[in-house]
Amino acid sequence: MKKNIPERSDATGRSGNPSPPGVDWTDVILAAIILAVCGFLFYVTTRFEEASEQMSQNIPPEWFPQIILIFIMILTLAIPFEQYFKGKKVAGKEREVSVKPISIVTALLLCFIIFLMPWLGIFVTMILICLLLPLLWGERRLRVLLPFAIIFPGAVTLLFTKVLGVYFETGIWSKLF
Amino acid sequence: MDAAIQGFALILDPMNIFLIFIAVLIGVCVGALPGLSSPMAIALLLPFSLSMEPVSAISMMAALYCAGTFGGSITAILINAPGAPPAVATAFDGYPMAKRGEAGRALGLAAVSSVTGGIFSLFIFLFLAPVLAEVALKFRPQEYFALAVFALSMLASISGTSSIRNLIAGAVGVLIGTVGIHITTGVERFTFNSPELTEGINFIPVLIGLFAIGELLNQSQTLDKTFERITSVVVKLPSLKEFLRMKWTIIRSSVLGTFIGILPAEGATVAALMGYNEAKRFAKNKEAFGQGAPEGIVGPEAANNAATGGAMVPTLALGIPGSATTALILAALIMHGFRPGPFLVRETPHIVYAIFGAMIIANFMFLIVGLAGAKVFSRITLIPRKILWPSVFVFSMVGSYAFASSLFDVWTMLVAGIVGFLMKRHGFGPAPLVMGLILGKLVEENLSRAMIIYDNNWLRFFESPIVDGFLVLTLMSLFWPLISKIWKRN
């Protein structure tokens, strides 16, 4: 994710310019996104089914969400100017470093595995997570990885199915065995 | 008296003692491991707890809360990596003391002051919770609404650098609470024709996602970070003379921590930082702070553990969480069929005594466990993160699924995690969102009831002096950053 802040950053992501920060353009974009989402949700509230007066007792269902959305939108308008008035950075220090590709790939991998979960079943999904995530993160010791990817999901399955009585979708596992 | 006997009898059941011991072990480990936190551990424990006896489940969570707060100090002192945010201030003097070869003494001071602060606050909790509940029983919907709004306004001063972002995150939490069928009219709100959303968004996957998956993605950013190995540590308890020499620091921090804990939304981190500041302010040798001053360890440690008992007061007596962790305990109480608030104290007082008992036992247990196993616990930072975090994900996934055997909940967890990760990067913490999520229903229900009672006349809210009082407090907490700035300038 490309940063768009007035201060320059070095390769480590640390801020190198000591001058007081002005309007943070990342915050401007952030505020615009929040306003757009709130605007859309406000529109959705106008499409709520109408309740009879007797049921709603003058408190229609859209009333409370609309108050909250207006509250959020008013506060959001202040976000771009927050840093300017405070004279210091207000966003999380995590933002000083760009999102690393490994985090994006991790999120995508997790989404992909969960997408396959109905077909794979829970046990196989757990094995895949325990195998693929450490591999993605650079773990190459197979003598550590393989026992972990089998024993840990097995223990979790036993705990949930035998002790806590939760039914696990078997998925592909039942077709294999 | 009967309730107290019944509550203590429940908690002294060998099975419950064993579960508290397990919770203390988990709590100290979780507290000691940078990245893992008590809220995350409690969020992961929630699905497991549903098949347990309610008292055992809540006791485990309360014990984990106490132990997790202490656990953070182990790694803060030994490797200057606070395992949990409340231990940040402990590292200021704990690590310099450890570096000059007095790690055992620093751990001993932290353990003893933590237990003292924790037990002090628990007795305040035991005394104050019934009194507060008695007052709250007289509250009508309008007063409850004003109280909940005050609690939400406190998010403005919760830890973090931006009051505005904290308030927005809280409001987003309230908004998420409105998803599903509107209780008064039966109209579907924000369901987008999805049958899974008609009953609203489940707390558990959202909480797990925000605390566990958000942190997992955060950790993936720092995979190359390594922790130093620990040299052998022999924990040394402070002598009675040394303990008595610091008695005023401990008492002051315990009182301060309890008070901050009682304030809605404020938690152990704020208490610890204030405890440290006050210890420094009253110290004769201020220059020693930052160089390994003992008061710089006992101040924050007594305060952060005192905040745990303090935070239980509004949680149980009013149904208003005192911190992010107690918000999760509140969610657990609701899921186990209790009504947190004055009715819990009036109708099931034995539960309150049981929680009190569990926290007292947990305090003594973590003293023993912490002292005996500090060396072992400090070594858990050596667990490879490339193995630890996939395990956390597996627990998160299965925990989210187990709640309602629903794949939709697993997606909810994942989406909440990704959103939480992005939110944190931009200064919106997960704690305010959780508080908003928990308090949202309370705010809406009471506002609607009050508006019906007042025939939609807003001005009639001001007829109640309690509402007026809470509104003044709300305004004060909202504008506190501005007020304190003007005060400091003058």
Describe the structure.
The complex is a heterodimer of chains A (177) and B (490). Helix content of chain A is 63%, strand content 0%. Chain A is mainly α. Chain A has two domains: 25-96; 101-176, no CATH class. Mean pLDDT of chain A is 82; it is low at 1-19. Chain B is mostly helical and 490 residues long. A two-stranded antiparallel sheet of chain B has the order 1-2. In chain B, a hairpin with a 6-residue loop joins strand 1 and strand 2 (188-189). The longest helix of chain B has 49 residues, at 88-136. Chain B starts with a helix and ends with a helix. Chains A and B meet through helix 1, helix 3, helix 4, helix 5 and helix 6 of A and helix 7, strand 2, helix 8, helix 16 and helix 17 of B.
Question: How many helical stretches of chain A?
Answer: 7
- Secondary-structure element series of chain A: HHHHHHH
Oligomeric organization of the protein chains: heterodimer
**Main β sheet profile of chain B:** 2 strands, antiparallel
Category by helix and strand content of chain A: mainly alpha
For the largest interface in this structure, which chains are involved and how many residues does each contribute? A-B, 70 and 60 residues
| Shape label of chain A | flat
Summed up, the domain count of chain B is: 1
Strand content of chain B: under 5%
Order of strands, main sheet of chain B, comes to 1-2
Mean pLDDT of chain A: 82
Distance between the termini of chain B: 52 Å
Shape of chain B: globular
Q: How widely separated are the two ends of chain A? A: 45 Å
Structural Rg of chain B: 22 Å
| Radius of gyration from the alpha-carbon trace of chain A, in angstroms | 25 Å
